Amino acid sequence: MGKGSRLLPALETALWPLMALIAGGLVFSLFLLVQGKSPVEFFALIWRAGFSTAFSWQNTLSRVSPLLFAGLCVAIPARLGLMVIGGEGAIVLGGLAAAVTGAQVALWPTAAGFAAMALSAVCIGAIWIGLVGLLRVRRGVNETIASLLMAYIASALFNHLVESVFRDPASLNKPSTLPLVDTLRVGMMPGLQAHWGVLAGIVACIAAWALIDRTRLGFAARITGDNMRAAQVQGFNVAGLIVGFTALAGGLAGLAGFYEVAAVHGSANASLISGVGYTGILVAFLARHNPLAIVPVAILLAGFEASSGLIQRRMDLPDATILVFEGCVFLIVLLSETVQGRMPALWLALKGPSR
Amino acid sequence: MPMKSTLSRRRFLTSTTAAFGATALMPFGANMARAADGLTVGFIYVGPKDDYGYNQAHAEGAAAIKAMAGVTVIEEENVPESTDVANTMESMINFDGASLLFPTSFGYYDPFIKELAPKNPEVRFEHCGGLWGEGDPANAGSYFGYIGKGQYLNGIVAGHMTKTKKIGFVAAKPIPQVLNNINSFLLGARAVDPTITCQVIFTGEWSLAVKEAEATNALADQGADVITCHVDGPKVVVETAAARGCYVCGYHANQSALAPDLYLTGAEWNWAQVYTDMVTKYMAGETIPNFVRGGLADGFIKMSPLGPAVTEAAAAQFEAVKAEILKGGFAVIKGPLKDNKGNVIAAEGEAFAEDDIKLESMDYLVEGVIGSTS
Fold first, then answer.
1. Nearest to B374 among A53, A164, A316 (CB)
2. Whether pLDDT at B3 is above 50
3. Over the stretch B259-281, which tens digit does the pLDDT of each residue have?
4. How far is it, in rounded angstroms, from Cα A33 to Cα B240?
5. What is the SS3 assignment for B155?
6. Distance between CA atoms of B9 and B20, rounded to whole angstroms?
7. Distance from CA of A193 to the nearest CA of B (A)
8. Taking CB atoms and an 8 Å limit, are A265 and B9 in contact across chains?
9. Do A310 and B95 touch (CB under 8 A)?
10. Potential cystine with A90: which of A125, A212, A242, A243 (Cβ 3.0-4.6 Å)?
11. Where in chain B is the domain with CATH 3.40.50.2300?
């Protein structure tokens, strides 16, 4: 069979998302043409607003951090064969935990204060999504539905707590928690208009990749994802893996909440419920649940979203345009899942009789 | 849409390759042209600009600016109160050359405008909401209107039109501005008939159509026959109430088109006048005060024209009270007044003017309002 067939699967892995992106772009171009708008102008504006100038990059990078964590929150459980789509819940509760802790530790040394805030955010997130894993293991509850419904509960809980017990009495018309002191605000990375959460997110992606692809634990998780029965037969602690990996995913989503509060908002309020957890689903799928691929995909999607405003203003298209575009790509990605892994077979079939 | 981009769009359609180059160059050319032409003003809305509510009220104001000579208006809707708004503001400054911005949602100010204003000293940031305080950036400012008296006038008409003596209020969150509107609505109705009660339902969100519809239906089920609201987009409340045969009083913008027969009147923002004044001043090189507020008498607020169902008696009292308000010195929250838990709010002879700082921290519902702030 030779070299070609060994290279093809690797090539295919990288090629599919790219092809899905292009195919999604083509489908969306048709949609634009039907609306009487120029696809060329659309993609030129994405380039211009998302990637062409220093300001575009600043605009793009400022959106990347939560996308990285939200993508991981979907991708990590996905490697175990679990579809967790409610990372949003862990993000908002993690943010709340960070804000409330931050108000308590205002007088602590800075490093200890940050550690306490981050830790509480990670713990709450881990408990929230870990609970989804536990429900799956103990009660056989479908994790997709459980996590989605729990995201709604999380938002309601968040609003209730921010508007009652944790409300800063001075925040009259926009209920918020007590503002963080300046020493507990995460700053910008030197020379970049992007906060440290971006770097933390990239580090988290690399660590998650190492865990899944380079450790025995990750191997057990991948086996579980491929065939749960087989993993059980092999004596892997499947229940422990499921709870542990969902908790890890939730902890990372909680960290996204920590950075949103400490780097962007300075307190927890309704602005934290932004839906970025749901964009994370698209990030993870486009990255095919590979943590390393999440980094470029998150940057790409952040660039799409960064261009939304300019597209709205220049092309007179509604703000949902970018969502429609993302939806087209997502649909193609899902479709392509059905043909994935068949390229070598196709290759052989083409070669046909020579075999 | 500025002329330039319309032209270049046409060019796109004819030649795709040339178009790439054109877009790349366009913003710079456009910037220079605008700098020579006059002023580019950016408006940012938190929701859709045709929401029949808060955002539409601002968009109507923006439309008034568009008609001014030498002014280019750029708009962006559905911008969340997060990093998004910071990016949108910077994008308007960098790509469109905007030098006067109206980010119109309450949550845009802190931290986003406060952080961006010092970095862009040549740009003026005008924020709706009354948050500017001493020590804040000098190139930022706040404007807001006292709309409580609009709800008081709504209440006067509602008081005449209700047969069940029960009126209803669909409210977003129990914050001071909303509570003031609820209290004003009931006090207006009680100025007509002191036995009237007002049931309030809080939905918990500024924009949550399903709950707004449920709340409106619940109010109708409980016998309320005049309904008003304070949510970002009153469309759902107005349509649901009208479908149940209730009279409706509007809020934020004019919703009479949604319920032509049952719409009584409404408390509307008059941003067209406020914005025209501000932009005129700005273009003349005058300084806009950092803190601008006003009510019905100052033209910040207006009332929707009375609907066809409004009786003569209701119209007469509405006009009389409105005339009195326009004269100045009229107070809605005045003694003797208790809250609905029996605590004294104002003693006999005590009155709070609409700009009284005490009303800014209102945390009670007055006697006659059925509902709770927590």
1. A164
2. no
3. 999 999 999 999 999 999 999 99
4. 37
5. helix
6. 11
7. 11
8. no
9. yes
10. A125
11. 3-146+271-297, 148-268+299-370
B148-268+299-370 CATH:
3.40.50.2300
Number of Cβ atoms within 10 Å of the Cβ of A262: 26
Query: CB B90 to CB A173 under 8 A?
Result: no
Task: For chain A, 355 residues long, give each residue's pLDDT as a single digit of tens.
Answer: 445 556 666 676 777 778 888 999 999 999 999 989 999 999 999 999 999 988 889 889 989 999 999 999 999 999 999 999 999 999 999 999 999 999 999 899 999 999 999 999 999 999 999 999 999 999 999 999 999 999 999 999 999 999 889 998 888 778 899 999 988 999 888 887 789 999 999 999 999 999 999 999 999 999 999 888 888 888 889 999 999 999 999 999 999 999 999 998 999 999 899 889 999 999 999 898 999 999 999 999 999 999 999 999 998 888 889 989 988 988 888 887 776 666 667 677 777 655 4
- Listed in sequence order, the residues at least 6 apart from B232 whose beta carbon sits closer than 8 Å to its beta carbon are B46, B47, B51, B53, B54, B55, B172, B206, B207, B252
Nearest partner of A102 among A326, A265, A248, A214, judged by Cα:
A265
Joined together, the tokens standing for residue B344 give: 């004294």
Residues in chain B: 374
Element (H, E) at B268: strand B263-269
The angle at the Cα of B204, spanning B202 to B205, to the nearest 5 degrees, equals 120
Q: Which fold has domain B3-146+271-297?
A: Rossmann fold (3.40.50)
Token pair 């010195």 is at which residue? B329
φ, ψ for residue B167, nearest 5 deg = -120, 160
Distance separating alpha carbons of residues A271 and A157, to the nearest angstrom: 15
Whether residue A266 lies within 8 A of chain B, CB to CB, comes out as yes
How would you write A157-222 as a 3-class SS string? HHHHHHHCCCCCCCCCCCCECCCCCHHHCCCECCCCCCEHHHHHHHHHHHHHHHHHHHCHHHHHHH
Q: What is the pLDDT of residues B177-213, one digit of tens each?
A: 999 999 999 999 999 999 999 999 999 889 999 999 9
Give the N- to C-terminal CA distance of chain A in Å, as an integer: 9
Specify the residue for token string 């799956």: A136
Say if the Cβ atoms of B20 and A44 lie within 8 Å. yes
Interface pTM, i.e. ipTM: 0.77
C-alpha A176/C-alpha A166 separation (Å) is 8
As given in the structure block, the two tokens for residue A60 are 């793009």
- For B189, the token pair is 């109705």
β-bridge pairing B344-346 and B337-338:
antiparallel
Q: Give CA–CA dist A44/A109, Å, rounded.
A: 48
Structure-block tokens of residue B256: 């009479």
Q: Which of B28, B83, B293 to mutate to test the interface with A (most CBs of A within 10 A)?
A: B83
Q: Please answer whether residues B240 and B216 qualify as being in contact, where contact means their C-beta atoms are separated by less than 8 angstroms.
A: yes
Q: Which two tokens stand for residue B119?
A: 């970095």
β-bridge mates for residue B200, sequence order: B169
pTM: 0.82
User: Which residue's entry shows tokens 């949604």?
Assistant: B258
